[in-house]
Amino acid sequence: MSLPSQENFLLRMVVIKISKLIGANLKSRQLFSWQQKAILIIQLIALATQINGLISVWPNVAEICNSLIVWFFGVQTITRGISTFTKNDEKICPEIEKIIDNFFQKSEKNEKFRQILLSHLRIFKPIVLAFLAVYFISSFLPIITGWIMTSIGGEVKLFLPIKFPYIDLNNIFGYLFVQFFLALLAMTLFAIIATGDVYNFYLTLQTVLMVKILNCQFDKLGEDLIKVRELEEKTQKLRTKKSKSWDILLFNNSIFYPLRMMIVKMLRLIGASLPNGKLLSVPQIIISIIQAIAISIQINGLIKLWPNRTELIRSIILYLLGTQTIIRGISRFTRDDEKALKEINGIIDKLYGENEKDEKFCQSLSSNVKLFRKLILTYLITCCIFYHLPAATGWILTLMTGEFVLPMPLKFPYIDSYSTFGFLLCLAFTTLVSTTLFLIIAAGDTANLYFTLQTITMVDMFVLKLQFLGEDLIRVRKLEIKIQNDELSINSKPSQKVGKASIDLKLKNLKVMQNFVDQQFIRLINDYNTYNDYISRIFSFRELITFTTLYLNFIGIGLSLVTIKFSSISFGIATGMIFTLQVFMHCVEGTLVSIQNDKLLAKVQDFPWYKLSHPQKKIFLQFLCICQSTNSFSLPIFGDVNMELFKDIMQATYSFLMCIIQFVN
User: How far apart are the C-alpha atoms of 166 and 161, rounded to whole Å?
Assistant: First the structure.
């Protein structure tokens, strides 16, 4: 059974997993048992009790019950996951097959994917265990800390992700925001619990990545990369005749191809004029400029001129444009497949140039219109619930109370913006939400944002991470073609001066050389594929998330110290330790990378490179340099970050932080 196309598999799997995680009956199959449905009802009742600010009877009891439910099933999940993935490979194989049976229908099961998954258990096991450890530290350790402090102080204090003790819950808008955020976290946690184990949810997130980047289609990867490189060379030649010198140096270099693609997509989203046409009309550009000005005014806390009027205008613009987007998207994607396909092709034509369109991607979309429509409609409904409903609620409450207030995600009126922590928290969340909403609005349709993110993750990052591997595969492929041509030339043009025995000897030597080259390079490339897959799962789709998490964790550590010194609240010690532990989990990843790098170098040193020809020796030396340079990852603005040095800095920071905490106490 051959694998489906990457885009086909992506869209199909995402829709199936999302539908299963929210308990939808897909293909007449229910995911939840009656016990799990009963737990879901209890969880929703506890959340409803919290969300309803008018119900003031036993609020602490409701929160404690909610945290008990989440904590009990989370610990059960973590315990079961650790007990399962600390077994040997033979005992884990039935567990993996059971997971695949639970998540895949008979028509969806792919034997090649199952074989790949079972053959990479040694890589899969430590990643799952690390995920369980991070999940425990970031989710359940704060709950336990809150319980301990509750028992000591006599007042209910539940930390993230259960409660925000810094927000004034006496304000109904602050309370509503907390409960909206809690509902999102609770649904995520419950989705993990409902699947039976944490690693089921982890498998859901990793399925696309493992099938896409793992060794699923490496037999055709060399030929595909050769075609891509030839297409890039043709495109560069065409652009060289029309472009300026700076454009040639920056954008036409194959090394900067992913960067060029990302810049093109972002410029189109903000309405920049490019040779392929404008994405936004003049009114949309004007509205986008007003939106950017409103966002900058809101973020800048020093500007006190008409803040309510500015935010009111901004919220009205956002609400009208967002409503227009949702209505337009629902009206477009509730049509029949032919009309929806025309809309999708129109979006692709706007976002992609003639040389950038991928026919295979377009064909896979056209063959999955129904699934794509479900995904877009689900996204639109989610945007309506989590964005427009709070905005409309804020307007109604403004008319009722006479005071201008907007709940999440437009404003955080319940956070004390005069405090450093409140201002930074407000700034971080406002920037994140405003940027996301601005991208959605600037694109004109929600589908445009989806295509943009899809392009960056599936094309640009894929080409970027496999660039050096592609060059190696291209060289090996060309070497194979050369050997085949030599063999054909010997067979088709036998020399009259050379005897038959001499020709047979040459053919025999050529076959031996071909087998030697194939075996050695296949072994070396397989090792590099495995290592590259390991690196990709850690860094490819998490570079920005990792950097953002570390940045916010450092802010949390510093603010915890400020809280300990200048405030009578005692939870600063606990939050500082939690933030520091989260930072250390990212440092552990650097250690894992160095271990894998050492193993790869040991295999490379055993390779008999001195028996190769001069071009092959050059390839080997380039490959060796690549292997030695993979112990770092690059971040925008900051350049390359060495994980070993980063880990040492984190250890020193942790020791210094502990000394300060002990000194303060």
Answer: 13
